[in-house]
Write a structure and sequence with these properties.
This protein has a single domain, classed as 3-Layer(aba) Sandwich (Trna Endonuclease, Chain: A, domain 1). The strands form two sheets. It has a six-stranded mixed beta sheet with strand order 1-2-3-5-6-9, sandwiched between helices. A three-stranded antiparallel beta sheet has the order 4-8-7. Strand 5 and strand 6 form a beta hairpin. By secondary structure, it is of the alpha+beta class.
């Protein structure tokens, strides 16, 4: 499976999870290639709006550029949404991290399995906040 297909499939899985829990959700195709900031997934339930940058990895850590994180934060602020990083490691469930919980690594940020388990919320916890 290609890197791109893996990410698209992970995003679609997340969309289904939101709809199955009475949340509306959409996947924004090409979000990383738009000239305007946009998240991978936008979800809401009438009282909350969530903007999610999704990452899927077979490795034990995933890196995000400062640009990705900054654009998510900008979009969320302008849209009135909460900004989250959705992380799905192979053979594991989703973890959601606030931007403040990301580990700064020079000019980028990282999320390890250990950090995701320690600071991240599971899907059920995210939608119950």
């Amino acid at each position: 499976m290609s890197h791109k297909s893996k990410g698209i499939n992970a995003e679609r899985e997340l969309i289904h999870a939101f709809w199955n829990n009475s949340w509306s959700a959409v996947r924004i195709a090409g979000s990383g290639s738009s000239r305007y900031p946009s998240p991978d997934v936008l979800a809401g339930n009438g009282s909350r709006r969530i903007a999610i940058e999704c990452k899927a990895s077979k490795d034990t850590a995933k890196y995000l550029t400062a640009k990705e994180v900054g654009e998510l934060q900008t979009f969320a602020e302008l849209f009135g949404a909460e900004a989250w990083i959705g992380m799905r490691f192979d053979d594991m469930k989703w973890y959601f991290l606030s931007l403040e919980d990301l580990k700064a690594s020079g000019k980028s940020f990282s999320v390890s399995i250990e950090l995701a388990k320690k600071k991240g919320l599971k899907f059920e916890e995210l939608i119950e906040i």
